[in-house]
Amino acid sequence: MMNVDTKRVYLSVKLILPLLVMGVMVSSIQTPVHQKPNSPIIMIVTVDWEVGNEEALRDTIPDSTRAILRLFKKHDIKATFLAECDSIVNMFEYEDLVNEILADGHEIGFHFHLICWLQTETQMKTSIEYAKEEAGRYNIDLKSFRAGCFEITPKYLELLKEAGFHVDLSEREGTPHWLNNGMLELPLTHLKKWHILNYYLNFYNRDMEKIVNEKYKDGTDIFVLYFHQWNIVKDEKLLNYMDNFFSYIEKKYNVKYITCKEAYRMFYTDKENNDSISHGDP
Length: 282
Ligand SMILES: [Zn+2]
Fold this sequence. Notes:
The chain is α/β, with parallel strands linked by helices. The protein has helices at about 5-30, 60-75, 95-105, 120-135, 155-160, 210-215, 230-235, 240-250, 260-270; strands at about 40-50, 80-85, 105-110, 145, 165-170, 175-180, 185, 220-230, 255. The longest helix has 25 residues, at about 5-30. It is globular and about 50 Å long. Bound molecules: zinc ion.
């Protein structure tokens, strides 16, 4: 038989325990940022602006770049063009195109392929300085970087930071986060469960809508997508697909397209309060 005190404790546990459990459950449910009415999703569109080592692509640069610029203009997209200057083509030599990209309000960053081939710190520094000089001819202050084949080294990141870069885009998958050196890392948005099928947010696999919808359901509201300007040369239907994709997300979501520099500024204000990245209302 229970005495009165035991009974009281028993009763209060019986009453309070479910409340405590409910409390734990409620606090462990994260409310995704995008559930706020009219809160936008952030789309960071990046273009690896390059030909790599394919000589045949050289002649296609002006037409393909301008086709993409027209598409971006149609959708009011502010994008980031990551320009290579280390292969058979130095993109900074296309003066008209660089000026047209800048005039449309896009950001120009740096894309470099040979990091793993460089032996010394001096060689690494020289590669960065060369790009800065080339960009400097247009008064571009390079802030954003992507390594070719997503192959980056800690040393190169350190030198980029010293050279004034703010954003790295060399991680193949993940979510935006701060690197130890203070740079913002913007990995490609990736559908984890389909890893084996290589489902990144790019235009190769034609499943962009699905990735955006599924990630959004999981609470993602910052997306990083990428492609190369030559993708539309190799696949004539791609430009049309891209056009449809952007129309689709614009209809379905409150999309805001921002450059990498803008992303850095936006996230930086949150940095002191919270290490995780959330965008707030831009
Ligand atoms: Zn590349």
